[in-house]
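Input:
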Amino acid sequence: MKWIRWGGFMAFVLVMAVMAGVWLLVIDGLVERTIEDYGTDLVGARVELAEADLTLIPAGLTLTGLQVTNPDHPMTNAVEVAQIALTLDGLKLFRRQIIVEEMTVEQVQFGTRRKTSGAVAGLPRAPAPGQPTLPDAQFALPAFDVPDVKTILAKENLETLQMVETLKQEIEQEKSKWEQRLKDLPSKKTFAKYRAKIEKLKNGTKGGIGGILGGVAEAQTIKKEIEGELQTIKDAQKDFQTLLPSLKSRIRQIAEAPQADIRRLQDKYSLSPRGLVNLGSGLLGRQVGAWLYQAVAWYETARPIVVRVQQATAKAADAEIAEPVRASGVDIRFAEAEPLPEFLIRRARVSLRLELGDLAGEVQNVTPDQVTLGAPLTFDFSGENLEGVRSVSIKGDLNHVDPENPKNRMNFRSTGYRMSEVALSDQPAWPVALKSGLANVSIRAELRGDALTANLTGNLSSLAVVAGKPGDENPLTRALSSAISGISRLTVETDVSGSIEDYQVAVRSDLDRVMRKAAGRLVQAVSAELHRKLSTAVRKQVSGPIKNLQGSFSGLNGVGGELAKRLTEGNDLLGSLLEQGVSPQQKGIVPRGLPGGFKLPF
Amino acid sequence: MLKTLAKLLRVLNSETEPGQISLGLCFALVAGLTPLWSLHNIVVLFCVLVLRVNLSAFLVSLPVFSAFAYLLDPLFHAIGLPLLTSSSLEPLWTSLYNSTLWRLERFNNSIVMGSLVFSLVAFVPTLLLFNFLIRRYRDHVLAWVQQTRIMQIVKASKLYGAYQSVSRLGGDAL
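Output:
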């Protein structure tokens, strides 16, 4: 046929073969360079790969000697991996989706030394990790000074004495007032005058009706006057009787006041059991806080890279590009029968080489696009017979399927962790160290958005605790040292809440009970002794003034007696006036009772 | 060495009919305006090698059209994006999107789509245009070019001599 160049078929095959051959020759280098360039861009420091080997049948990739520089320490690798072998879904590769069916990662090490610096000038670094809060390192032992009673009483004012002084002044004022009032009230002299008038009237009565009636009128007048006098005395007596009970009541209160003073001073100066709450937790809190700080620091180191990968993926998926560049343009995504992210590692078997030994585990569903995948990343690592620990297990998941509600969880368990030379208190006054022990630790942590909640449970056994210093004279630290040095088992529970940047730690431990009991016994004994001494001293100080007060009050009592006496005298006088106030001559004229039931007006 | 080169030149400069040259130029239009490593360019390459198309026209004009593509990218994007986001075509694109071959073609990229559509639409008109221009060139300009100093120097070269001797065995030069 005129239009067909038969040799062209051969030429086409030859060209394709040459292209394929070139591709096969260069692809390994291309992959290596791509990983290095992309990784360097992402991390902000050099990422190096010794070798990349891409195979087509089956589709797979083997990476050897991967080193990821720590951008903060360019002479150190953040991660170094001996070998990564991937099997890829070939068909998905044609769709520009990197779906790794299975990945094996061998000998992952952290913090290895580099031969050359991995710093790259002019490259934007991943955002610096956040700075978690370093826990307050100091454990504070409550102050324990046995107070001197004399010093206390010299410093403190007793309320009893103040009350005594106040009441005493009031009593004295009342006494003066009543003395003056008594002077104004009818006295013996006054009644004597009336008695003289009555006598005069009795003896001086004239004969005849006129004389009798005149005498009666005068007697009536005298009677009225006496009654008036008696009324003033009665009024005074009533006032006095109103005053007396309130004074008595206050004197009773003063009698009880010393007890209140003793209680107040004891509360102020003795070490109450309330001051011993959470002693044990305070001792352990420092170490727990340090471990938490380390965990948060690791999280903060990893987070910027994870965030950056997610941002890069989100940007690539975004349909908006300001300036389409040659062969770049905008990729429009359509509904897929089997939607998958552009990058996914379904399962990765990882072996970690740590200082304490090898951990092996599996990570599933590694992808920056969990929304499309619809499943969270899960990880499960464990190790046995490691250096310093019998077994370790770490499981968890990072769930960002709903980007508005991210949820990250982790369960950590370790058994037989050997502790050695752990300083619990650096205080020169009371050093405490855990010389040795075994710990079984369980941690559950959850991060929802920025809200962190975590619970740590530690069962410590075979403990050897050294506390205190030789020649310690403080009874409190001696008692505490004696109590905790004998401990061989311990349970610690820690609750963490807040945010990654600002979290609160609440530590509970049965060490609280042990220390509280030891210190409590000592505190009780000291407290009882203080109470006894305070009681004696306070009572001694207040007894004199109270006695004086009672003496003053007794003096006031005399007023009542005087009022009663005057009233009796007045009543007697009135009685005698009523009985004997008519002369024998007037008896016959003025009968006692008038007919018709009329009575005389007196 | 010179003979080998001359043979190569002969192969490249065979198929000198205006239609063959125009076809070479149009295939170069498609390959040049669209991203070079697209799947459809394998089809273009196949057509260029298997069909009696002027290879040198294809090879010479390919970089020229590629250069034009840089300037026309915004136009291609403006053509491709509305096509890809058209709701009436969405079922078609969705079924293509779920096909591995078409995903390899990257049809869902706005520039790939726009440049391909543009070059396919322009293929026939440019074929006719190039045909017309080549005939006019041969009729009115070729004789003058043969007389220029540059052509004299080229004709005097050994390479041209070798080319001429090989050509005499079959086919005419451009």
